[in-house]
Amino acid sequence: MVKNKENLTKSFGMIENSMEKMWDMWLVSLGSLASTQEQIENMTRKQLDQNKVAREELAKLEQDLNKQMRLNQEQFQKMVEEAVVNTYQDVNDANRQMIADLSKQVVDLNKQVAELSKQFQKFSKKPAKN
What's residue 61's pLDDT? Predict the structure, then answer.
């Protein structure tokens, strides 16, 4: 019976020792789980912060691109307006020159008609030789 009592005491001692080790393992596991959870939360916060920064940078880039597009559009519009004005001026200059040339030709032709008319009148006043 003493031996059974000793065996029973040893068994309870082993069970108690096992229970303490199990509690220690549980504490270590819970500590690891808490640490892992903190790491995951930190990584998630960092990712959210990075996403926020990226979103802000993207919004700023979009604003910059919109501004640049407006400037480019204004410059293009000015270039087209200048090209149209220059073309219109060139056409007007060419038309004025053509009108001036045609007017000069008309004056020259009028002089020639007047000269021919004088010659015709002189010719018609001369008596005919038979």
Answer: 97
Cα–Cα distance for residue pair 81/104, rounded to 1 Å: 34
Mean local confidence (pLDDT), 18-39: 91
* Vertex 49 angle, CA 45 and 52, to 5°: 140
- The C-alpha atoms of residue 65 and residue 35 are separated, in whole angstroms, by 44
Q: How far apart are CA 101 and CA 107, in angstroms?
A: 10
Phi/psi of residue 126, nearest 5 degrees: -70, 140
Phi, psi angle pair for 127, to nearest 5°: -70, 150
Residue with tokens 């008596």: 127
Could you read off the pLDDT of 89-110 as tens digits, one per residue? Answer: 999 999 999 999 999 999 999 9
